Amino acid sequence: MKTLIFLLPVLTLLSVRVSAGPGCGPCVLDQCASLPAEGCSAGTVPDSCGCCVVCAAAEGELCGGRRAAARRCGPGLECVKSAEDKKSKLGVCVCKSNYEVCGTDGVTYKNGCALKKANLRAETEGQEPISVQNKGRCASAPLIVTPPGEVYNVSGSQVYLSCEAVGVPTPVLTWKKVLSGTKRMELLPGDRDNLAIQTRGGPEKHEVTGWVLISPLTKEVEGSYECHATNSKGEASAIGTIHLVESLDDIAVKKVTKEDEL
């Protein structure tokens, strides 16, 4: 019985030394460096020796290393090493999730790690904490990213106006022709044989692209056209114009005049 009591402290001491890892000396908490006053952007983790609390490596920062100098990634991150990095044992912290998330602050973050970083900053500054509201982008009203421009061409030619809008949920695009001399608009395509409407998703996620296609161009279809985007969060619109000119030479003249105005 006495022998067992004598061995117990020795076994406990040995277990501490083994868990500390190679290159680690005795754990003296008083010798641990202080954390920065502004906090740690990726949170804190125990050091590689399991003794001191240190700032974790953030997304895109170096991680790994040799023995006691090894640096660990923050929560939600993993240390990814290439074939070349394996020799130096260094890697880069990469987020384990690769999808966008919407925060309770109404901001869309590229991944959960970026949201966690923003939350730590908010808590450090005494602001409301930020958590995940939903996967994917935050709901937003439509925005016209590429409005329809101005087109000049001769009678009988084929012309088109294009428009791109983005929003969450993905907006629905409609086209209207501004009726000359009035504030009324005609919803397209209507019953015009020489006019067609086309719409497709993209090129980016939650983006939609639409076209007004006219062939042949006539005096009746000349004028202004409104691209209108709408979803459950709101709406947006932009206007483009189709001009009928007498000859192809007039197209170059109109373009030069337009550039001078800009």
Description:
- Helix content is about 20%, strand content about 35%.
- The chain is built from 4 helices and 17 strands.
- It has helices at about 1-20, 85-90, 110-125, 250-260, and strands at about 45, 55, 60-65, 75-80, 90-95, 100-105, 110, 130-135, 140-145, 150-155, 160-170, 170-180, 185, 195-200, 205-215, 225-230, 235-245.
- The longest helix has 19 residues, at about 1-20.
- The radius of gyration is 32 Å and the shape is elongated.
- The model is unreliable at about 1-20 (pLDDT under 50).
Task: Give a brief rundown of this model.
The protein is an alpha+beta fold and 262 residues long.
Main sheet summary: 5 strands, mixed
Question: How is the quaternary structure best described?
Answer: single chain
E-strand count: 17
Strand order of the largest sheet: 10-17-16-12-13
Instruction: Classify the helix fraction into a percent range.
Output: 10-25%
The H-and-E topology, N to C, reads as HEEEEHEEEHEEEEEEEEEEH
> If you compute it from the alpha carbons, what radius of gyration comes out, rounded to the nearest whole angstrom?
32 Å
Number of contiguous helices: 4
Structural class given helices, strands, pairing? alpha+beta
Terminal Cα separation, in Å?
Answer: 97 Å
GO biological process, one term: regulation of signal transduction
Organism: Xyrichtys novacula
Protein name: Insulin-like growth factor-binding protein 7
InterPro entries: Growth_fac_rcpt_cys_sf (IPR009030), Ig-like_dom (IPR007110), Ig-like_dom_sf (IPR036179), Ig-like_fold (IPR013783), Ig_sub (IPR003599), Ig_sub2 (IPR003598), IGFBP-like (IPR000867), IGFBP_rP_mac25 (IPR011390)
